[in-house]
Write a structure and sequence with these properties.
Helices cover 43% and strands 14% of the residues. It is an alpha/beta fold and 200 residues long. β1 and β2 (64-65) form a beta hairpin. α1 packs across α2 (23-35).
């Protein structure tokens, strides 16, 4: 039998909506916020609101950013002949930490998953195709996770990008099978980037 108040239950339910946060974790976070000085909760709420209001998608690569184009797309120091395709914005941070890759990125915002109802139209694939007409791109690096969905996405992209007659590579699968790229250490990601294999 639940003994929490309606307001506490509501907060727990909202926290549970965050990926990887189950009921127990949601309860711990909830009670942490309620036991601390009210300023802690208010600062967190203010930071969330500010991030939501001031964060946009880069009109070129679809990364989350506070400016458009994002800092990477706007940089004159990046190699514009290479585009690394990733599933989520946080994957960019994982790759950037290696210090190895100096090209551009394209964020799909997910991967193909018929079970979850995610098809090509739900991803930022058409944006990638548009970019290939505006840049002298020589290589597309597919850095999707080595999961069933990540592999299916890489295969689909390879098929639709064939017509552009550019080099298509996939990061080496020194990454654990079934692992999410965001949880892999930077040394492994660096080796995967260096050992990428040509698909086309």
């Amino acid at each position: 039998m639940e003994t929490f108040s309606l307001t506490i239950n509501k907060l727990i339910e909202e926290l549970k909506k965050i990926p990887t946060i189950g009921r127990k974790s949601a309860q711990r976070i909830c009670f942490y916020l309620l036991k601390k000085d009210p300023k802690v909760a208010l600062d967190l709420a203010a930071a969330i609101v500010e991030a939501r209001e001031k964060t946009i998608l880069c009109s070129i690569c679809y990364n989350l950013t506070g400016q458009d184009p994002c800092e990477i797309c706007a940089s004159k120091q990046r190699d514009t002949t290479k585009i690394c395709v990733v599933e989520e914005p946080f994957n960019i941070i994982s790759i950037e930490r290696t210090g190895l890759y100096k090209g551009l990125y394209h964020v799909l915002h997910g991967n193909l998953s018929p079970i979850k109802g995610v098809g090509p139209e739900e991803l930022k694939i058409s944006g990638l195709q548009k970019r290939l007409g505006g840049y002298s791109v020589s290589e597309i690096i597919l850095a999707t996770s080595p999961t069933t969905e990540g592999n299916a996405t890489a295969h689909y992209l390879t098929e639709i990008l064939k017509k552009y007659k550019i080099r298509i590579t996939r990061i080496a699968l020194g990454l654990p099978i079934g692992a999410d790229i965001d949880y892999v250490d930077s040394v492994t990601i660096a080796r995967a980037m260096e050992g990428r294999t040509e698909i086309l």
